[in-house]
Specification:
Blueprint lengths: L2 E7 L4 H4 L13 H16 L6 E5 L2 H10 L5 E3 L35 H18 L4 E6 L1 H10 L17 E7 L2 E8 L4
Parallel strand pairs: 1-4, 2-3, 2-4
Antiparallel strand pairs: 1-5, 5-6
Helix pairs in contact: 2-3, 4-5
Length: 189
């Protein structure tokens, strides 16, 4: 059975607005973030997409985003969490190195890039292998979504440079334990 995964970044948060590094630390959605989630919900409605199963990371910002998109019961999954930025959590973004980050955050007690990529990718694969529904929503984080895209870049012709916007949706086809990126939707523009 071919399934569709809608992997999505959460709505804008207070720390996004304040340009603070936000990985495992959390901050609430802004009013704009709530509106972005409602626009994403409208995208699913306008395109007659019936979401049948849903997951969010254990961060409040992803659960709050998901709850504005669907009233489905959902599971919170630690493996979908954002990159652990170590001691730089909550600090200003000007402390970030230029992209790609590589293993920069490991020196501050954070995760190594490839370990982070493997955590997110194996979590999503495991969830989809167990999933029996056709249309699955997973709400995660910007770097998590980007690392998942990198894991499966070899199966897709779609590329995306720069940051993934808040509530950006990556539509994947999942078949035979393989993901293929079909489309990147930014319903908030």
């Amino acid at each position: 059975m071919t399934q569709t995964l809608y992997l999505m970044r959460h709505g804008q948060t207070l720390f996004n607005q304040q340009k603070k590094i936000q990985g495992w630390c959390d901050s609430p959605l802004t009013e704009l973030g709530k509106e972005q989630a409602k626009m994403a919900a409208q995208y699913f409605k306008d395109n007659q997409i019936t979401l049948e199963s849903a997951y969010a990371s254990t961060s409040e910002r992803t659960a709050d985003t998901l709850e504005l998109i669907t009233d489905l019961p959902y599971k919170r999954v630690k493996g979908l969490k954002e990159w652990n930025f170590g001691k730089l959590e909550g600090e200003h973004e000007y402390l970030n190195p230029p992209l790609p980050y590589g293993d920069f955050f490991a020196d501050f007690g954070g995760e190594l890039e490839l370990e982070f990529r493997e955590r997110v990718s194996s979590t999503i694969l495991d969830l989809m292998q167990k999933e029996t529904h056709q249309n699955v929503l997973m709400v995660s984080h910007g770097a998590s979504c980007r690392q998942f895209m990198r894991s499966w870049a070899h199966t897709s012709e779609i590329t995306h440079e720069g940051r993934l916007g808040n509530c950006c949706i990556m539509k994947y086809e999942f078949e035979n334990d393989s993901f293929r990126l079909l489309e990147i939707i930014n319903p908030t523009i």
